[in-house]
What we know:
Largest sheet: none
Strand content: under 5%
CATH superfamily: Tetracycline Repressor, domain 2
Mean pLDDT: 85
Distance between the termini: 39 Å
CATH architecture: Orthogonal Bundle
Low-confidence stretches: none
Number of helices: 7
Radius of gyration: 14 Å
Oligomer: single chain
Number of strands: 0
Amino acid sequence: MQREKDRFGADAAAALSEPTGRTALQHLIQAAVRQQLSRAELARLLDIAEERPGAREAVDGKSGFGALIHQILARPDLPAQPDTARAADDVGQLIRALTDAAGLRGDTDAVALERRLCAAVFGYLGAAQM
Length: 130
């Protein structure tokens, strides 16, 4: 389980090399979709394993996913958030929930899933500043 999370972590961390916050978030979303749909059965089993007591905390604590999102949200081209730490957590949970749900349904259309994720994430970020 940790090996797969490490692969995803490296792919996700590459988002920081993107020139803007928007493209960095898009890269992060694409990485999440790749991880979920490229090996759908393995991703589904990992999702189930993560639900064991303590498993999600152990993996999340090592992944730095929240810190990565926090760094991206600090970029000047994205809307300022009233509470960046909370927004980073919310964005991470949105990405996780939607990709996990797609995996459980057996979705295979990566482009459609990326579109839904971008709508949810960028919609949230725009609404959070109201």
